Amino acid sequence: MNLGENIHNAFEVVNKTHENVNNLIEFCKLMVNEKKEFDLMSPKFLRYKSDSDYWGWNTRQLFLLFQDMQDEVLENGWRDGPIYVLEILLYDPYECFETNEPRLELAKFEYEDIKNLPTGVSPANYYCFTHPLYDLDYEELEDGTLVADMPEEFTQRYWGVKRVVCKVELLVDVNNENAYDKIFGAFKYLKTK
Q: Under a CB-based contact definition with an 8 Å cutoff, are residues 121 and 108 in contact?
């Protein structure tokens, strides 16, 4: 196989992966509408994108934001409760975990005062979720759940986030039969932590 064929095959794999990720995102939207337990707060997925930085051409990390529909809707459009974050991480160049396999980060973000969050969210707001997930050392609880209280500088910089609790699932372990439980079941579990 020559270099051109290798590049072509690599893009075939990336395109197929993005197609499967899109199917997962559409599944989440369908489940939100069908089950009526969580509200999708990010109509478009959040991600890093840049025309001037080649790293920004590479969609490797996507975020969807949800909130529990039992929480009261506030004037700013958010609900008076935590934000549940689904991160789909396809490639981790920093090797933050034991394995570099694609994974789902399922997290609960608790806020100092969610009433102060800006109205709506844009794809560029990804940094408000990626930095609190990766720029701190987390304490691991007995059940494998990770938890971190945010330092004041993070609270000030990232919309008032005070605490993050998260779980990790390998993306290859998620399929049609278990996707709802792996994602929304994890959010329900994290609600208790």
A: no
Its pTM stands at 0.93
Q: What is the DSSP letter of 182?
A: I
- pLDDT, tens digit, 9 for 90 and up, residues 12-28: 998 999 999 999 999 99
β-partners of residue 109 are: 83, 164
Q: Please state the length of the chain.
A: 193
90-131 pLDDT, tens digit each: 988 766 667 788 999 999 999 999 999 999 899 989 999 999
CA 18/CA 189 separation, integer angstroms:
28
Distance CA 12, CA 16 (A): 6
Distance CA 54, CA 23 (A): 26
Give the residues across from 165 on adjacent strands: 108, 147
Q: Where are the alpha helices (DSSP H) in the chain?
A: 3-35, 127-134, 152-157, 179-180, 186-191
